[in-house]
Amino acid sequence: MKANESGFSRGKAEAEKGIPYGERVVGIAIVVFSVLMVLYFVAHQMRSTDFFTVRFGTLEMLMLYGFWGFWIVSAGLEGVFGRRLLSRLFDAFGGLIFATIAIAWLFVVFPFEFAYVADALPDPLRFLVQWISNDIARVLIVLGIIVHLSAAVYSPIAYKFVGKKRPRREKIADLL
Questions:
Q1: In a domain? residue 4
Q2: Least C-beta-crowded within 10 Å: which of 7, 89, 142, 173?
Q3: Where are the alpha helices (DSSP H) in 6-113?
Q4: Is 5 contained in some domain?
Q5: What radius of gyration do the chain's Cα atoms show?
Q6: Mean pLDDT by 10 residues, the chain (176 residues)
């Protein structure tokens, strides 16, 4: 590392090394899954399935669709467009914090009735989600809060030190 080299330039150099094929496939899969989830929730709203309760207002809609939008942008930048640096910056400086706040808000308000979660699916596919009760959904949301909060703390730290860790790994690899 050069004395006048900034953390941004180190991160940019790391990000420009290229994204392995497997990581890009995972990013694309996350984008596809997130888009399907958005379409699934829109289907619930359009069909008035009663999955969303009266507590599902404009703010809750923003939080729910914003959460999935975060994953589409983050995974899309890296997996679809191959822009790891932009994805890391988005994650580290706002995206994960928003996702954590959004999912926490949805946990507090809980504008869902999971007895109707399968109603937007065709009959042969309903078994995939009809086992999810409100209690199971709350547990899954708490796990999501923990994961996103941990990532929101870890991501800026990892972004800052990625340039310092990489040269050490490369020196070890040269010895092997």
A1: no
A2: 173
A3: 7-15, 21-47, 58-75, 84-90, 96-109
A4: no
A5: 20
A6: 59 65 90 96 95 96 96 89 82 88 97 96 94 97 95 83 54 45
CA distance 65 to 102: 9
Please give the Cα distance from 143 to 24 (Å, whole number). 25
Query: Is the distance from CB of 53 to CB of 113 less than 8 angstroms?
Result: yes
pLDDT of residue 82: 83
Number of helices and strands in the chain (H, E): 6, 0
pLDDT on residue 16: 57
Domain tally for the chain? 1
Q: What is the model's pLDDT at position 85?
A: 78
pTM summary value: 0.77
Whether 12 is covered by a domain: the verdict is no
Q: How far is CA 43 from CA 51, 66, 117, 143, in A?
A: 10, 17, 11, 25
DSSP single-letter state for residue 163: H
Closest CA to 71 of 103, 33, 101: 33
> Would 6 be classed as within a structural domain?
no
Q: Which domain covers residue 142, as residue numbers?
A: 18-175
SS3 breakdown of the chain: % helix, strand, coil, rounded to 5?
Answer: 80, 0, 20
